[in-house]
């Protein structure tokens, strides 16, 4: 069984902060993007885990409640989408606790899963797993077992496992999907990789992981399913030259090969079994 997950965040909000340093409100375009996703999931009868940003849960509580009512798992993506390696341990604790409290108040039930912004739990900040366990999280899905300039632990075990932590607690890590070929681990989990790889390669990767009895842990973002072109200049007011150059770069990067994502995902969901992190772990012997 494979795991389907989405990082529930607003592209416009986060790119605006990357360019200007200011964090605007979450835009209503997120609801339009989510309608495409929920339609795919309903048609393929698939349940997914949604790692929800605290700012999204604050502004769109009904969206989160509706997802849970449809049987999807709600988990935590932090509050402000800060990279863990940019935070001290106390600041990470506060950001995560705040998001967990908000989401649990919206749902009126506990949540058990976490994913860091940009997979930013790495070798030098594994203390974050201790913080998560202290806050009551049962699993984390932040570690990408690849070599990358911005994230990843290349020699981390590629399959879900339970780990004993220095503080005496335990947590399950659910790494993102990779495929080992010619001695190299290729990222095939989702996001930009999914947009760039053709469907035949994604199907071949899924079949190869099935033969290896490996579960594919996938991730996607709502913006990847927006039927409209992404354009940060919709909310950048009178940008200077530097901001304009950054905006063009973000527009190009995140619109690239995005048109076929919905069809590719639907094709995989029809052919391969997917479920939530929580459902997977309920049946796994870890």
Structure description:
The protein starts with a strand and ends with a helix. A hairpin with a 2-residue loop joins strand 8 and strand 9 (184-187). It has helices spanning 11-20, 29-43, 54-59, 61-69, 89-107, 127-134, 191-196, 199-211, 241-255, 261-271, 277-283; strands at residues 2-8, 49-52, 73-76, 113-114, 139-140, 161-164, 170-173, 178-181, 184-187, 217-220, 274-275. Helix 2 packs parallel to helix 10 (261-271) and helix 5 runs parallel beside helix 6 (127-134). The model has no long low-confidence stretch (mean pLDDT 94). It is of the alpha/beta class and 286 residues long. The strands form 3 sheets. Strands 1, 2, 3, 10 and 11 form a 5-stranded parallel sheet that branches. A 4-stranded mixed sheet has the order 4-5-7-6, with helices on one face. Strands 8-9 form a two-stranded antiparallel ribbon. The protein has a single domain, classed as TIM Barrel (Alpha-Beta Barrel), CATH 3.20.20.370.
The amount of helix comes to: 40-55%
Tell me the CATH architecture. Alpha-Beta Barrel
Give the helices and strands as they follow along the chain.
EHHEHHEHEHEEEEEHHEHHEH
Number of strands: 11
Largest sheet: 5 strands, parallel
Instruction: State which percent range the strand residues make up.
Output: 5-15%
The CATH class designation is Alpha Beta
Shape: globular
Average pLDDT, rounded to a whole number, is 94
Q: From the helix content, strand content and strand pairing, which structural class follows?
A: alpha/beta
């Amino acid at each position: 069984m494979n795991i389907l997950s989405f990082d529930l965040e607003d592209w416009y909000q986060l790119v605006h902060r990357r360019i200007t340093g200011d964090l605007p409100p979450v835009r209503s375009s997120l609801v339009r993007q989510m309608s495409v996703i929920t339609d795919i999931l309903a048609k393929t009868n698939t349940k997914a885990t949604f790692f929800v940003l605290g700012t999204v849960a604050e502004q769109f509580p009904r969206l989160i409640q509706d997802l849970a009512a449809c049987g999807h798992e709600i988990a935590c993506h932090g509050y402000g989408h800060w990279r863990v390696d940019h935070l001290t341990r106390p600041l990470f604790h506060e950001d995560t606790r705040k998001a967990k409290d908000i989401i649990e108040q919206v749902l009126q039930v506990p949540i058990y899963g976490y994913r860091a912004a940009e997979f930013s739990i790495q070798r030098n900040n594994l203390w974050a797993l201790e913080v998560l366990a202290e806050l009551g999280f049962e699993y984390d899905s932040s570690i990408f077992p690849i070599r990358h300039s911005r994230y990843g632990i290349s020699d981390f075990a590629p399959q879900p496992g339970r780990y004993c932590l220095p503080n005496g607690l335990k947590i399950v890590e659910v790494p993102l999907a990779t495929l080992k070929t010619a001695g190299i681990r290729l990222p095939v989990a989702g996001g930009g990789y999914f947009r760039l790889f053709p469907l035949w390669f994604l199907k071949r990767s899924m079949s190869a992981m099935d033969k290896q009895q490996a579960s594919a842990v996938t991730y996607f973002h709502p913006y990847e399913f927006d039927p409209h072109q992404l354009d940060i200049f919709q909310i950048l007011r009178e940008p200077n030259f530097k901001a304009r150059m950054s905006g063009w770069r973000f527009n190009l990067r995140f619109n690239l090969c995005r048109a076929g994502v919905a069809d590719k995902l639907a094709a995989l969901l029809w052919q391969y079994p997917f479920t939530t992190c929580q459902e997977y772990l309920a049946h796994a012997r870890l």
